[in-house]
Amino acid sequence: MDVERVELQIEEAVRDEGRSGRLRRALWEHARQHGQEAGDADLDGAVGFVMDYVRHVPGLFRDGMETARIAGLESEMSWVLESAVSYWAMAEDMIPDRLGLLGVLDDAYCSLTLLQALSDRHENETGRRLFSPDLAAANEAMRRLIGEPIASQLDMYVGSKFDADPMLQMARALTSLSRNVEGLQLPVGPGIWDGESVEEVVSTHLGAVGLA
Questions:
Q1: 64 with 111: CB under 8 angstroms?
Q2: In whole angstroms, what is the distance from residue 125 CA to residue 137 CA?
Q3: Counts of helices then strands in the chain (DSSP H, E)
Q4: Helices (H), 72-135
Q5: Domain boundaries in the chain?
Q6: Higher model confidence: residue 122 or residue 156?
Q7: Which of 113, 124, 174, 207 has the smallest CB count inside 10 Å?
Q8: Handedness of CA 175, 178, 184, 185 (dihedral sign)
Q9: Terminal CA-CA length for the chain
Q10: DSSP, res 207
Q11: Are 114 and 161 in contact (CB under 8 A)?
Q12: What is the pTM for the complete model shown?
């Protein structure tokens, strides 16, 4: 799993945004279409949120592998994460990567919704989350930014990966192990939003552009 390559791709997309402002313009247009006037500070906050969202991916990949190592499920988790990384390797995917931060937003959305689905299944079965934080609110906001029909196509792509046999085996194995050893919980650090509620961060940074 080439997490370093994903990190380099993300940082190049961040640099591109500094040069092009594509995402900033897209956020301004989204706000306008929803009857809101986003000022510079509003747009700064929204762009910063998207940067944080995308940059969260490599850390969760590493956390997932560490949990799998502790559980003795490295090969199973490797398949799950390779499924996520494989989308990053497509230069001309549903939103072309050459579009900078906009271009990797679909890649990040696929990765984080896939991991969220795995964590949700674990919580449903055991009552405990597998990944921290819960990114459901952030994923939903990014889904609105991506828009239709691409968002639904991405959901179908993630669903096809999640329903594949290796993923189901991974989910079952984690659930079984969790029940027997008082739960598997990823190490909880302050995170990219310093431990704040994701729902509150979404509301604070994306409300003014019509995404919260």
A1: no
A2: 21
A3: 9, 0
A4: 74-88, 101-126
A5: 3-209
A6: 156
A7: 124
A8: positive
A9: 33
A10: G
A11: yes
A12: 0.88
| Centroid of chain to Cα 44 | 20
Tallying the residues shown for the chain, one arrives at: 212
What pLDDT, in 10s, does the model give residues 153-165? 999 999 888 776 6
DSSP assignment string, the chain: --HHHHHHHHHHHHHHHHHH-HHHHHHHHHHHHTT----HHHHHHHHHHHHHHHHHHHHHHHHHHHHHHHHT-HHHHHHHHHHHHHHHT-TTSSS-GGGTHHHHHHHHHHHHHHHHHHHHHHHHHHSS-SSSS--HHHHHHHHHHH-TTHHHHHHHHHHHHHTSHHHHHHHHHHHHHHHHTT--------TTTTT--HHHHHHHHHGGGT--
Calculate the CA 90 to chain-centre distance. 17
Residue type, 195: G
